Amino acid sequence: MTRAIAVGVDGSAESLAAADWAAGEAALRGAPLRVVHAWHPESADATVAQDREEQARAADAVLREVETRVSGRRPDLRVSAEVVGDSPVAALLREAERAEMLVLGSRGHGAVVGFLLGSYGQQVIADAQRPVVSVRAGTGTGAEAPHAGDGAGEIVVGQHGEPEDGEAVLRFAFEAAAARGAAVRAVRAWTLPPLYAYNTGVLDMADQAGGLEPMERQALARAVAPWRERFPDVPVTEHVEIGSAGQVLLAAAADARLLVVGRRTHRSPIGTRIGSVAHAALHHANCPVAVVPPA
């Protein structure tokens, strides 16, 4: 059975953009769309019962607006919608667990970070067991519509470490490209190692490869090779550049249709962190960003 594309909505312009993107993605993949609005009464006090009833009606109205919107635009799409009586984080994590991916809206970087990303989206992204796609409003985010400009329509994906370290993100990127008839740009950023990291093994590998940058190019080629073989119809550009991973990826994705990054979850006393590269992509990329958990 095909997993659904799930989208969390809250009535904002950002969540409407997320719903549009999720509907397009579901249509591309031949998957059903599941629309969820998480709402939980703040109080059981009888004196606020009427307010709760009004809130419940408002929650249902948010859901019906989105359902009507996507069904009107894509009448052949299988759509289900539900108001889930739970906290947003708990509800969305459950949805992500059983979906192919979860889609959320975000304002991205600005004076106020979007409600979905700022208040609970980052926790969902950090803990979800499936990929989470963050979509901004007003950036031409239709799933089937490429952006204008050189390299328009590319799926940009970041790769690091050994081939097995990037399996999940590369799989997601190539599947997304195949569904769209798009190209993949696989990006590997590198920096000069600190002095203490220079040892005989590193120097020998660099010498054999012809230098540090050729060594990085070979590493990327090894990681991408099995996915080239699995998706022979997907054009691939291998992009290796020295610099900060976040900056290199954002520059490469300036005209991308989708940016795919991995997730490195860090727990700290001040909350869950998703890693600097994913954080930079979510807050600064002009296109939808898919954050993929480790395989």
From TrEMBL:
Superkingdom to which the source organism belongs: Bacteria
Residue intervals of the UspA domain: 1-136, 155-293
Matching InterPro entries: Rossmann-like_a/b/a_fold, Universal_stress_UspA, UspA
Pfam families in the record: Usp
Similarity-based family: Belongs to the universal stress protein A family.
Record-given protein name: Universal stress protein
Source organism per UniProt: Streptomyces longispororuber
